[in-house]
Amino acid sequence: MQQLSVAVIDARHASKQRLGEQLFKSATLLAAVLVLLLLGGVAVALLSGAWPALAQFKLGFLTREVWNPVTEKFGALAAIYGTLVTSLVAMLVAIPVSFGIAIFLTELCPAWLKRPVGIAVELLAAVPSIIYGIWGLFVFAPLLQRHLQPWLIEHVGSLPLVGGLFRGPPFGIGVLTAGLVLAIMVLPFISSVMRDVFETVPDVLKESAYGLGATTWEVIWKVVLPHARVGVVGGVMLGLGRALGETMAVTFVIGNAHRISGSLLAPGTTISASIANEFNEATGDLYNSSLIALGVLLFLITFTVIAAARFMLLRLERRALSSV
Amino acid sequence: MSRALSRKLTNFGALTLSSLATLVGLACLGAILWTLLKNGVSGLSVQVFTQMTPPPGSAGGLLNAIYGSVLMTAIGIVIGTPIGVLAGTYLAEYGRHARLSDVIRFVNDVLLSAPSIIVGLFVYEIVVVRMGHFSAIAGAFALAVIAIPVTVRTTEDMLSLVPQGMKDASTALGAYPWRTITSVIYPAARSGIVTGLLLAVARVSGETAPLLFTVVSNQFWTTDLNAEMANLPVVIYTYAQSPYKEWQQLAWTGALLITVAILLLSIAARVLVSALQPSGRGR
Amino acid sequence: MRSGGIPAILLAAAILLAPAVPAADISGAGATFPYPIYSKWADAYKKQTGIGLNYQSIGSGAGIKQIKAKTVTFGASDMPLKPDELKASGLVQFPMIIGGVVPVVNIKGVGPGQLTLDGATIASIYLGEITTWNDPRIKKLNPKLALPSTAIAPVYRAEGSGTNFLFTDYLSKQSAKFKDTIGAAASVQWPVGVGAKGNEGEANQTTQTDGAIGYVEYAYAKQNKMAYALMINKAGKAVAPSAESFQAAAGNGDWAHAEGYYLILTDQPGAASWPLTGASFILLYSTPPDVVASNAALKFFGWAYANGGKMASDLDYVPLPSSLVALVQKTWKTEIKSR
Which of C61, C63, C44 is nearest to C53 (CA)? Predict the structure, then answer.
């Protein structure tokens, strides 16, 4: 009889377990699908808000520089240009600097210093973006206006090819300043990923190279970096994604001009800065809709960057596996 | 120049540059923190924590803004964390090798890197426009949307760190996967999941753009979720651009408060991670 | 088990606390220009009567959207709505407070009140036609001032704002070319110059850039002791920005004949009038969906008209002249349903 009751208990227990399994499994699947739905929802909501503008301007929205709320003619070209240029400047500055920091932390830094310096660099990522904006406007921009920009205008502005990039009055704020602030913002992301990846390189590989008489730099450039290629690309893409979408830091220092200028010292605008600056005061359905259309464009740009990064990583991984 | 010498010089040059780069990075951090401290500390007083945001020309504090930020962050995390943890569990356990998981991971990466202003616009369109007005619940919802991808990622990473042996032992004892997950894996990855939570909190605490379009702010004290509520980022945003000295001072002090809170959270998360990190990840 | 405990307690506490604190009775949203004075009045009113006023300075555009959607009791806009738009939405509009926009410059050797400009000249500067400070057109207005050959760096407001609207409206009245090329709105496309964020940002940018010209609210110029310019008004006189010159412009405005109080105070006649004056407006429903709330709002505005003058002047705003207040209160009686 005892055995019978145990069997009954077991059977009930088992069916409760099965039910629990079904519920839990469905819950996790539901949550996972919700993530998909979230993206879909964002896309749909933005597209429906942007529709009036897109229907009105069609492809011209992408190719026209005009942004006139009075005549209600809107084109995203200046914003797209600004977004791409500021991110490019940010990457050009941040990648070498992050690389340098990663090298320092993995190869040069004495062990007792590694932890604090590492934490300090990553604390840059913890500073909220609005702080970057305020700091950029009240401290960094005046600094650039008084020292860096006049120097650039005088010495680089007159050079043949590169000179065109550094012309115009020293406003302090502008595309270059925004790019530099972005560079400081994405620095911790790229450098921490690079550093993590550098540390996964097996010591054996490095020691063999040292054993053959390579200098530290040669080991890094010829052994560590190729091995860590995949992660480095991932880190760079992460930083790029961040730079493209950054709003608050850029809004304060970009100078909000819907114009395309050849000079980096000129003011410009980015997609997120335009939305942040103009959304609340925008009157008129077409104006509102054009701002949301800018949002759609930004979304597409970040989407493309991430997809490209994924694709590149896949190819690099495959190549790395096949070459081993 | 002999080859040996040029190689030595290149090495020296490269290493010096990388040290300089680190100094630059540290200098920037120092500059920002210094500015924050210099401008924010002078406004620190008990008043900041006990009085409401003042009208211009009067002294006051940030109590309603602090409360609003804490409340909306809390609600956002309460909404977002369970979803993120469950989704991360799916990716790490049930659907580890499924095709769907690859798609979900990609989509999660997109959401993770999505500019927060897009999230703000999204919540504006589906919540604010529908409700007809701004509200704290819309703001909390926007924060939840930002927190979910962070939590999914960290949960998946942390759960996959749990040794396969533990999972196998549990299965061998006859446990269904859900029992294994809830009784074995979650406790084992507990500190990792808490780390994810801290990172999510740190991430959403500093966000301004999404709150700007969903909850805006409020001059007075309110606990009504259905109305606008004060919050630190938007108050800082508004006050920093104003001409009133008291407001500007509060903006810097508020900025200092947020930064310190987020720094502490990030350090706590980091400490937790290195405490739990086994030797398996090549570190 | 999972760390949802503390937030859950907070949430429960919030829900429990909610009925204990009375919610603000009067809700309004809109213009950023009068936000400081509205919040000051609200604070004083609450101290006196216990009734709260929750004003969201989300921008005139957003404020108009909110009142049209009937989600707030009143809307506030720096730009008045046209009479037909008022009729179509059933709204009543009236001015609440007056302020001025002041052009400021940063030229070596030029102090506050030393430079004189007029609308046509400023329009040409912002169109990019006048590029240096020693241009003959500026010299003509300032025969006794030594002007350097520094390049002019025009600064404008980056985000949409009522200040922009006032400035561009005045320049459009003074220069047909400005009107055609740029136009008058809260947000326009500027052909030259750099945009700075907020009054503070614009003030900063102007004081830091040599040769800059910008335009800021009077409060800013005064509090930061900026080098403001005198303006030649409609009567041909050079006036300085001050509470008196703003009041003169407001007083000279033909409010009695302005349907729906649609009157933009830029370029008003009168020897002492400041040309860049503007009023900020309130929008209420003629047949309010919530009569109690509407009456409470009107009571607040009446209180502000009667008691808020000193507070306004302290913050460098200008209260409405009493003749205008009388007109407005008559409009309330005739056009806004109170039961």
Answer: C44
